[in-house]
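Following the same procedure, sequence and fold were stored together, as reproduced here.

>
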Amino acid sequence: MDSIIFDVDGTLWDSTESVAQSWTAYLQEKEHMDITLTSARLMTLFGQTLSDIARQIFPDCSEAEQLRLIDGCCQAEHEALLKKCAPLYEDLEKMLQIMYKKYPLYIVSNSQSGYIEVFLQTSGLEKYFKGHLCNGDTGLDKGSNIRKLADTYDLKSPVYVGDTFGDYQGCQKANVPFIFAEYGFGEVPKPDARICKPMDLVNISL
């Protein structure tokens, strides 16, 4: 491998509790909707595109209304996360300090525009990453964004670290080896490699 691309949610941090609180507050206080979201519910949704998440949370709304509501949720989420960083996974920065000296590091997420920037700013980890892409910026699925980033930065043998079956499917589409972060939100039966915690990545060789 000559580079590493990371997912965010369930791989670098767990923002589900903060997001659940901020989305619930926005929907109840600003939209006057009787909806309460939990961290557990969001863990089953994260990794999908926002339009897919909105469709499941607001099934009785029109598509335009679903997108308006989820956009409002995301704005509230960004404000909350900038005030207080979500929990980072164990020894994450220690791992990044080691790995960025060996490989260029990147991020590809299915998130909305601005979310990766919020993660980098509030966590203070921006210095370790050379670039990023997300669905909100390109409109592309994860596999296409992995391939687009690899082509943009001329990566010959990247690997992807993620935590959901959707991440695995994206890697299959992009023809990139998948390292499963099994401490995250999903389950993947046959990844190319597994890590139980971020520091395990230091000893991975693909």
Observations:
- The two ends are 6 Å apart (CA to CA).
- The beta strands are 3-6, 105-109, 131-134, 158-162, 178-181, 193-195.
- The chain has nine helices and six strands.
